[in-house]
C-alpha cells in the first residue's frame, strides 16, 4: 500500500475520522537513523493492508506537537504509531522500527483489519 504524506492537522483529522486502524510514521528529513527506519516502514507498507501515513516533522512541527498533546505519546523521531480507533495502540522509535516490529504490532493489535 502506498504511503501517503500528511502535512496538515486537517488531513490528519480526516484520516483519524475515517480510518479504523492505520500507521503513522514521524520522519526526520535530516537524521540517518530516520532514513533507515523509513526504509523499513516502506518495506512494511508494500505488503500492508493497513493504511500507512507519514509526516515530515520539520515541515509539520505543529502537527507533530498536536499529536503528542492529544494522544499522550512522547515525541521521538523517527517514530511509528499504530492507531486503533481514535487512540494509539502501539508505538516504537529509532532502530526498533523494523518490518518485523510493525508486523508484530498489527498481530498484537488483533486480526480485525480495516
UniProtKB/TrEMBL annotation:
Superkingdom per UniProt: Bacteria
Organism the protein comes from: Halobacillus amylolyticus
Record-linked InterPro entries: BrxC, Thioredoxin-like_sf
Name of the protein in its database record: Bacillithiol system redox-active protein YtxJ
Pfam families given in the database record: BrxC
NCBIfam families: B_thiol_YtxJ (TIGR04019)
Amino acid at each position: 500500500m502506498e504511503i501517503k504524506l500528511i502535512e496538515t492537522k486537517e488531513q490528519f483529522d480526516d484520516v483519524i475520522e475515517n480510518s479504523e486502524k492505520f500507521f503513522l510514521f514521524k520522519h526526520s528529513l535530516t537524521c540517518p537513523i530516520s532514513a533507515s527506519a523509513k526504509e523499513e516502514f516502506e518495506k512494511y507498507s508494500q505488503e500492508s493492508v493497513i493504511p500507512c501515513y507519514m509526516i515530515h516533522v520539520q515541515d509539520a512541527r505543529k502537527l507533530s506537537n498536536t499529536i503528542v498533546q492529544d494522544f499522550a505519546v512522547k515525541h521521538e523521531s523517527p517514530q511509528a504509531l499504530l492507531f486503533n480507533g481514535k487512540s494509539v495502540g502501539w508505538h516504537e522509535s529509532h532502530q526498533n522500527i523494523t518490518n518485523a516490529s510493525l508486523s508484530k504490532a498489527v498481530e498484537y493489535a488483533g486480526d480485525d483489519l480495516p
